[in-house]
Amino acid sequence: MSPVDRRRALQTLGAAAALSSPLAALAQAKPLVVGLPIAKSGPAGVADHADYLNGAKLAAKQINAAGGVKGRPIELRDFDIDIMTPEGTQASFRKMVDAKVHAIASPFCIIPIPAMEAVANYKAPYFNGNTSVAGMEHRKKNDKKFAHIFHLDPPETFYGAGFPIFLEQLQASGAWKPVNNKVHIVTEQLAYTQTITKSAEENFKKRGKFEVAKVTQIQFPVQDWGPVLQDIKKTGAGVLMINHWVAAELAAFSKAFAAKPLPGALVYLQYGPSQPEYLGLAGPAAEGFIWGTVYGAYADKQGQAFRAAYQAEFVKPGGVMGMVYTGGGYDTIQLLAKAWQTADPDKFDDVNNTIRKMTYRGVNGFYRFDNPYQAPLHYPLETQKLEEGIAHLFFQVQGGQHRIISPDTLKEVAFKAAPWMK
To answer: Rounded to 5 degrees, what are φ and ψ at 182?
Structure first.
């Protein structure tokens, strides 16, 4: 064989080997399509939805690099959604049905029930992070109709139930001595936040350690925090619960409060600081504020590995990583991949039955769906075992970073008095 013929033969063998490689075979296989309703614009939700999509992308990339699911690649298709209207919500979900996706993975819908109704007759598994007791109750009451709908996190009622316990534990630890036992709740007029406020009022009253002195209603968008700050100072409560979820507006509140604070008050911002833009917008004024989430990325060994991989993939140097839906998107794709390893992805009933029976420990906690809500359990109020539920996390901004201060089983650092508390 001449040198030219030998070179051509080697090239032919190399091409054949490349075509038979696992990655080449994966590229030729029928993909497993996951539809994601992702808000690309609008007054709220965009950052959370981007976090969720990125988390899902990271999981799909890792799974596909390892050979996919039984030789089939996971393909993500995102569909724009207007989460502020029922019509916009339903339109996005109907597009996913028309696309015949194998599963739907959603961070949250502000108006969850229209989304559920839009896919009532399309039985592909639908995971959501709606954090909505109304959605969960609707699913429970219509179990057969919505047997394919699974919730990624506990309902929002636990924000109200968990906050009084956090305060009591913090006080008992000796790390914080409240200036008084009064709580001032500032709450947005949205079903989600109103449900949390009602739960908080009920649980503070039931437990009896702290007393809700006043509830101040605000309307989104908040143009001026001045009147609210005047109300806060007039009431003089030792605990402030700012029950609002929009990061930019909570950043504006943080700057206004830090400039003219209520001395000694412990300030809790419900959820919103989890969104990446909060730290950037609030800047140094964010120091010392506390916030919580019933669904967030842990900082244990598994959580740290995920955070490092996510930051390397999506966060620019000096940037901020979201602490909630990043892990939610990642865990959702891992949950689906695990179910598809057992059940035929094209047989939706089999997949849904598999999901109901399985458990999974993700970066945001422990998932199980064998209950009427088809949702994981809240730790510590529904289960006392960390490895049986999703932990209610409390963070504090320390040194310009979000650090877990509760529960003790997952905390990164101890609580530190805010600048206005000293």
So the answer is: -90, 145
Show the 3-state SS of the chain.
CCHHHHHHHHHHHHHHHHHCCHHHHHHHCCCEEEEEEECCCCCCCHHHHHHHHHHHHHHHHHHHHCCCECCECEEEEEEECCCCCHHHHHHHHHHHHHCCCCEEEECCCCCHHHHHHHCCCCCCCEEECCCCHHHHHHHHHCCCCCCCEEECCCCCHHHHHHHHHHHHHHHHCCCCCCCCCEEEEEEECCHHHHHHHHHHHHHHHHHCCCEEEEEEEECCCCCCCHHHHHHHHHHCCCEEEEECCCHHHHHHHHHHHHHCCCCCCEEEEECHHHCCHHHHHHHHHHCCCEEEECCCCCCCHHHHHHHHHHHHHHCCCCCCCCCCHHHHHHHHHHHHHHHHHHCCCCCHHHHHHHHHHCEEEECCEEEECCCCCCCCCEECCCCCCHHHCEECEEEEEECCEEEEEECCCCCCCCCCCCHHHC
Q: For the residues 154-180, what does the mean pLDDT come to?
A: 98
- Tens digits of residue pLDDT in 4-43: 455 555 455 454 444 445 667 787 899 999 999 999 998 8
Distances (CA, A) of 404 to 7, 196, 306, 410: 60, 21, 16, 7
**Structure tokens, 352:** 């849904």
Helical axes 348-357 vs 325-342, angle rounded to 10°:
110
Checking if the pLDDT of 375 tops 80, the result is: yes
Q: What are phi and psi of 333, to 5 degrees?
A: -65, -35
Q: In what order do the strands lie in the sheet with 103-106?
A: 74-80, 32-38, 103-106, 126-128, 149-151
Residue-wise pLDDT tens digits, 52-87? 999 999 999 999 999 999 999 999 999 999 999 999
Give me the sign of the Cα torsion angle 171, 177, 181, 183: negative
